[in-house]
Amino acid sequence: MEGLRMKRPLTRTLLGLSGVILFGLAVAILFNPVDFFASSEIELSQSASLMSEIKAPAGLLLVSALILFAGAINTQLMPVALWLNILVYGSYAVGRLISITLDGLPDQSLLIATAIELAIALLSAWVLPRLA
Q1: Residue 8 belongs to what H/E stretch?
Q2: Nearest one of 82, 95, 71, 81 to 122, comparing CA atoms
Protein backbone atom coordinates (compact mmCIF):
# COMPACT_ATOMS: atom_id res chain seq x y z
CA MET A 1 0.00 0.00 0.00
CA GLU A 2 2.89 2.38 0.69
CA GLY A 3 4.16 1.97 -2.88
CA LEU A 4 0.70 2.90 -4.13
CA ARG A 5 0.89 6.27 -2.43
CA MET A 6 4.42 7.00 -3.55
CA LYS A 7 3.98 6.49 -7.31
CA ARG A 8 2.96 9.48 -9.41
CA PRO A 9 1.39 11.65 -6.67
CA LEU A 10 0.87 14.65 -8.95
CA THR A 11 -0.86 12.57 -11.62
CA ARG A 12 -3.02 10.96 -8.93
CA THR A 13 -3.89 14.41 -7.61
CA LEU A 14 -4.76 15.71 -11.09
CA LEU A 15 -7.01 12.73 -11.80
CA GLY A 16 -8.55 12.78 -8.33
CA LEU A 17 -9.39 16.49 -8.43
CA SER A 18 -10.65 16.21 -12.00
CA GLY A 19 -12.87 13.34 -10.89
CA VAL A 20 -14.18 15.28 -7.90
CA ILE A 21 -15.11 18.20 -10.18
CA LEU A 22 -16.93 15.95 -12.67
CA PHE A 23 -18.64 14.01 -9.90
CA GLY A 24 -19.85 17.21 -8.23
CA LEU A 25 -21.12 18.64 -11.52
CA ALA A 26 -22.87 15.39 -12.41
CA VAL A 27 -24.63 15.11 -9.06
CA ALA A 28 -25.70 18.77 -9.16
CA ILE A 29 -27.05 18.46 -12.70
CA LEU A 30 -28.76 15.11 -12.10
CA PHE A 31 -30.47 16.05 -8.84
CA ASN A 32 -30.81 19.86 -8.86
CA PRO A 33 -30.41 21.13 -12.43
CA VAL A 34 -32.59 24.22 -12.12
CA ASP A 35 -30.61 25.70 -9.23
CA PHE A 36 -27.28 24.57 -10.69
CA PHE A 37 -27.85 26.34 -14.00
CA ALA A 38 -29.42 29.36 -12.29
CA SER A 39 -26.05 29.96 -10.63
CA SER A 40 -24.74 30.78 -14.13
CA GLU A 41 -27.74 32.97 -15.04
CA ILE A 42 -29.37 30.17 -17.07
CA GLU A 43 -33.11 29.68 -16.61
CA LEU A 44 -34.50 26.19 -17.22
CA SER A 45 -38.11 25.14 -17.54
CA GLN A 46 -39.37 21.99 -15.84
CA SER A 47 -40.06 20.29 -19.18
CA ALA A 48 -39.43 16.55 -18.91
CA SER A 49 -37.82 16.58 -22.37
CA LEU A 50 -35.47 19.42 -21.41
CA MET A 51 -34.57 17.71 -18.14
CA SER A 52 -33.79 14.52 -20.08
CA GLU A 53 -31.50 16.43 -22.45
CA ILE A 54 -29.79 18.21 -19.55
CA LYS A 55 -29.33 15.09 -17.42
CA ALA A 56 -28.12 12.71 -20.16
CA PRO A 57 -24.66 14.37 -20.46
CA ALA A 58 -24.49 14.43 -16.66
CA GLY A 59 -24.58 10.64 -16.77
CA LEU A 60 -21.48 10.74 -18.97
CA LEU A 61 -19.79 13.08 -16.50
CA LEU A 62 -20.65 10.75 -13.62
CA VAL A 63 -19.23 7.66 -15.34
CA SER A 64 -16.18 9.67 -16.44
CA ALA A 65 -15.57 10.71 -12.84
CA LEU A 66 -15.57 7.07 -11.76
CA ILE A 67 -13.00 6.22 -14.45
CA LEU A 68 -10.84 9.16 -13.34
CA PHE A 69 -11.00 7.91 -9.75
CA ALA A 70 -9.96 4.45 -10.95
CA GLY A 71 -7.02 5.99 -12.82
CA ALA A 72 -5.98 7.89 -9.71
CA ILE A 73 -5.84 4.63 -7.78
CA ASN A 74 -4.48 2.20 -10.38
CA THR A 75 -1.36 3.24 -12.32
CA GLN A 76 -2.25 0.87 -15.17
CA LEU A 77 -5.43 2.89 -15.76
CA MET A 78 -3.69 6.28 -15.65
CA PRO A 79 -3.17 6.59 -19.43
CA VAL A 80 -6.84 5.84 -20.12
CA ALA A 81 -7.93 8.26 -17.41
CA LEU A 82 -5.64 11.00 -18.74
CA TRP A 83 -7.00 10.51 -22.27
CA LEU A 84 -10.52 10.73 -20.85
CA ASN A 85 -9.56 13.92 -19.01
CA ILE A 86 -8.25 15.39 -22.26
CA LEU A 87 -11.40 14.39 -24.16
CA VAL A 88 -13.99 15.47 -21.59
CA TYR A 89 -12.42 18.69 -20.36
CA GLY A 90 -10.96 19.52 -23.78
CA SER A 91 -14.26 19.08 -25.60
CA TYR A 92 -16.07 21.27 -23.07
CA ALA A 93 -13.38 23.95 -23.44
CA VAL A 94 -13.47 23.82 -27.25
CA GLY A 95 -17.27 23.96 -27.27
CA ARG A 96 -17.26 26.97 -24.96
CA LEU A 97 -14.60 28.75 -27.03
CA ILE A 98 -16.66 28.20 -30.18
CA SER A 99 -19.71 29.55 -28.35
CA ILE A 100 -17.78 32.62 -27.20
CA THR A 101 -16.72 33.25 -30.79
CA LEU A 102 -20.21 32.77 -32.25
CA ASP A 103 -22.46 33.96 -29.41
CA GLY A 104 -20.43 36.37 -27.29
CA LEU A 105 -19.26 36.25 -23.69
CA PRO A 106 -21.29 34.18 -21.20
CA ASP A 107 -21.63 34.69 -17.45
CA GLN A 108 -18.31 35.08 -15.59
CA SER A 109 -18.73 31.69 -13.90
CA LEU A 110 -18.74 30.05 -17.34
CA LEU A 111 -15.60 31.94 -18.35
CA ILE A 112 -13.92 30.61 -15.22
CA ALA A 113 -15.18 27.11 -16.08
CA THR A 114 -13.68 27.49 -19.57
CA ALA A 115 -10.28 28.40 -18.14
CA ILE A 116 -10.36 25.48 -15.69
CA GLU A 117 -11.44 23.02 -18.39
CA LEU A 118 -8.72 24.19 -20.74
CA ALA A 119 -6.08 24.04 -17.99
CA ILE A 120 -7.05 20.50 -16.97
CA ALA A 121 -7.07 19.28 -20.58
CA LEU A 122 -3.69 20.87 -21.34
CA LEU A 123 -2.13 19.65 -18.10
CA SER A 124 -3.38 16.12 -18.79
CA ALA A 125 -1.96 16.30 -22.32
CA TRP A 126 1.37 17.42 -20.87
CA VAL A 127 1.44 14.64 -18.24
CA LEU A 128 0.38 11.79 -20.55
CA PRO A 129 3.63 11.32 -22.53
CA ARG A 130 5.63 11.58 -19.31
CA LEU A 131 4.05 8.48 -17.72
CA ALA A 132 6.59 6.11 -19.27
Answers
A1: none
A2: 82
CA distance linking residue 132 with residue 125, whole number of Å: 14
Q: Are 124 and 85 in contact (CB under 8 A)?
A: yes
With contact defined as beta carbons under 8 Å apart, do 62 and 26 qualify?
A: yes
Q: 47 — phi, psi (to 5°)?
A: -55, 130
Mean pLDDT score, 116-130: 97
Rounded Cα–Cα distance for residues 74 and 94 (Å): 29
Percent of the chain with pLDDT over 70: 94
Amino acid present at 106: P
Q: Where are the beta strands (DSSP E) in the chain?
A: none
Query: Region 6-20: what's the mean pLDDT?
Result: 92
In whole angstroms, what is the distance from residue 29 CA to residue 61 CA? 10
Query: Which pLDDT score, from 0 to 100, does residue 17 have?
Result: 98
